[in-house]
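Today's session is about reading a structure prediction critically. Students often jump straight to the picture, but the first step is always the sequence itself: look for stretches that repeat, for charged clusters, for runs of hydrophobic residues. Only then move on to the predicted structure, which in these notes is written as discrete structure tokens rather than atom positions. Here is the chain we will use throughout the hour.
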Amino acid sequence: MGYSQFKTLQSVKQAFGISLKEGDRFLPDFSPLKPSEFLTAYLHESLPIVASSGSEKARSEGIIYPILLEVRRILDRQISLFSGEDFTVDESSGLAGICDFILSRSPEVLEIEAPVVVIVEAKRTDLKSGLGQCIAEMIAAQRFNQKHFSQMTTTPQPNIGIYSSVNNGSINNGSPKLIAVNLHNHAISHSYQGFLNHLNLAVPRGILR
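Below is the predicted structure for this chain, in token form.
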């Protein structure tokens, strides 16, 4: 079953012996970031349609993917974006299966390279229901980064997981045994600029330093 088997916070806490720390935010203050005219025009057309649709594919293509492409553009294409790729790290621990989105530090797009950040799309508008799966994928990313990135740097890397739905998104931070859960949700369908700002801070913090 892979990542999808972790349907509750309790299941992932028990499986990996982790603790949660709840808070409002862990990213620093930021200056407003102006999205490109292309993204603004695209979301102006897509948001009303996606907001009224129950299709996960519509949400993914209409909101999340364009915003992630915008982050890649802002970071001068120093990162690569993967959608719907297999990210099996440790099948025996259940850390296996398809990830909604992965951002990699490498500009290469043919293969996922460390370090990475994972983005999980909520299957329903209730963000709480999918946090277990998001944290499991964060743990997988952490192990992947430790295995493939350890020879490149000795500086500890923060582990970032981004969890989003058509209505809200949260950005969570992790260390080996402690996951900090951001309780402040960003209303993507009403103010995607704020979510874009936080992504632009979280992604370099997670994979570019």
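Discussion point for the tutorial: The mean pLDDT is 78.
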